Amino acid sequence: MSSIKIKNFGPIKEGFIDNDGFLPIDKLMIFIGGQGSGKSSIVKLISTLTWIEKALAKRTISIDNVVKDDAFITEWCKWQSIQNYFKPDSYIEYSGKYIHFKYDTGSVEVNIKEVDNYEIPKITYIPAERNFLSVLEELENVKGLPKSLSWTLEEYTKACRSLSRPISIHINDIKFEYNKSNKISSISGEGFNDLKLSEASSGIQSVVPMMLVLYYLKYFINNLKTNSIDNLSFAEREALRSMESNLASNPSLSQEEFQIAMDNLHKKFLPQNLFSIIEEIEQNLFPESQKNILFKSFEFNNDKEDNHLILTTHSPYIIAYTTLAMKAFKIKEKVKGNTDLLEKIELIVPVKSSVNPDLTGIYQIDDKGKVISIKSERGLILDNNFLNNSLEDTNDLFNELLDIEEECRK
Q1: What are the residue ranges spanned by the domains of the chain?
Q2: Which end of the chain is more exposed for a tag (fewer CB within 10 A), N or C?
Q3: Please, which residues bridge with residue 372 across strands?
């Protein structure tokens, strides 16, 4: 399992308080905390370092491209607009499957690990500003966006072009459709047809780019036609040709060994799994819709063993529904083969959306820059977390108002 240690970076000060500061990058990770607490700082660093690891594995960049001068800050971290988060005593250490990275008070060190089983991820970062994409009608002509949003736009545009029929967005039976001839996005549902996406509610505008990109990337990964050597970038093809040439010139390899080596080499260039990061997955959504979208994202994440999903949220409902998904997984494991009981679970949490607590990390970030796990040893979420406490505070305030009302009657 990959892990990351962060200290004195942006709002993050002490960082993760357990495991010598190393935060495990689990199959599912969820971060809660107030505005400016550091949720995005952590997930953007994870995204950046995972991307660097992938590029080094493909050999489309070299270690020197990362460690020279201030390249890590001025080039790589600038992509996620976190280049100004560094402090004189910032410390970042990342232990991935393919690289070990360390940034310590201005010094960068990268070491390659000797591994044979590193699989290339398809990394996607879906920012909170995604609903902006839904009001655009000429997607291909938009310029000057922040880089992370620009990447999402690129994938969203590809996803729209790939559609051959309307698809469900998992809210109120609404379907999304893209007209390739006039390049107009629209939605249809009960009582309305062909409503422009730019005229839809903010919740739908937030959901469409997110769900469409996830659908598209899942299809991309699983489709041999789209996920092929032919679709690599020029730099990737050049790097691959060089590595293929080195293999072909090795006289010690038998034909069978050569073919195995070639297959493994191609796996280093073709993405084998999804590494998805979504900011504020609940954005502008009614609680029931939050549940539907969350469970669908869990289903996408469960599609492959090595998929990863990282979420940031301000919603207590997201935490509550994740608790349901983890509990459903534990009960599902106990009732294997009992069709009746599995059907009852399905009515509460789709079995494909159940979440293994052992592969899940849920964290809150306090106002002092500490990262704290809020998952109990039993695999559930601790009641004493910021979002639950906010609800309890509201109840206490309401009780105080009732006391005042009672005094009025005296």
Answers
A1: 3-120+272-399, 142-267
A2: C
A3: 364
Crossing angle (nearest 10°) for helices 234-248 and 255-267: 160
Which structure tokens are listed for 71? 């390249």
At residue 391, φ and ψ (nearest 5 deg) are -65, -40
Cβ-contact 124, 275 below 8 angstroms: yes
How many Å apart are CA 188 and CA 165, to the nearest integer?
12
Compute the distance between CA of residue 210 and CA of residue 169 in angstroms, rounded to an integer. Answer: 10
Predicted TM-score of the model (pTM): 0.86
| Contact (CB, 8 A) for 99 and 112 | yes
- What letters, b where the CB count within 10 A reaches 16 and e where it falls short, cover 188-221? eeeeeeeeebeebeebbbbbbbbbbbbbbbbebb
Give the CA count within 13 Å in the CB-facing half-sphere of 119.
14
* Pairwise CA distance, residues 44 & 146, whole Å: 14
Instruction: Determine the Cα–Cα distance for residues 40 and 278; give it in Å rounded to an integer.
Output: 10
DSSP result, 238-269: HHHHHHHHHHHT-TT--HHHHHHHHHHHHHTT
Cα radius of gyration rounded to whole Å, the chain: 23
DSSP code, position 76: I
- Only one residue has tokens 């659908």, namely 215
The CA–CA distances, whole Å, from 57 to 50, 270, 328 equal: 11, 11, 37
Per-residue pLDDT of the chain (410 residues), as tens digits, is 899 999 999 999 999 999 999 999 999 999 998 888 899 999 999 999 999 999 998 888 999 999 998 999 999 999 899 999 999 999 999 999 999 999 998 899 999 998 777 888 999 999 998 888 888 767 666 777 777 788 888 888 888 888 889 999 999 899 999 988 888 899 998 888 889 998 999 999 999 999 999 998 888 777 655 556 656 666 666 777 777 788 788 888 888 877 877 777 776 777 889 999 999 999 999 999 999 999 999 999 999 999 999 999 999 899 989 988 988 898 888 887 788 888 998 999 999 999 999 999 999 999 889 999 988 766 667 666 666 666 666 667 767 767 766 767 76
